[in-house]
Design goal:
about 90 residues
């Protein structure tokens, strides 16, 4: 036997959906993140590899469709952003 108050109506599916949509944080779109990353790692930016500090590299190219996306001058393999530390002049 289920005890329910006849004055309280269960919420409809659309009301439940509306609540879940209003309680969410805004989503950053992948395009925004890629553009931000492209700006941070633009061609010519000076960086060092975190695993090899002290040696300065210049970014040759950033290609978001490649994994990893960052190519350095005089470096044979591309790098991920988390492997690099940007240097400010």
């Amino acid at each position: 036997m289920e005890l329910t108050d006849p004055l309280i109506q269960p919420k409809s599916q659309s009301e439940k959906l509306g609540e879940s949509l209003t309680n969410t944080k805004p989503v950053r779109h992948l395009v925004d993140v890629e553009e931000e990353e492209a700006d941070l790692y633009a061609k010519g930016t000076l960086v060092e590899i975190k695993g090899n500090p002290g040696k300065v590299y210049r970014i040759a190219e950033y290609v978001p469709m490649l994994v990893p996306p960052i190519w350095l001058e005089n470096e044979a393999s591309p790098r991920y952003p988390h492997e690099l530390r940007r240097l400010y002049g």
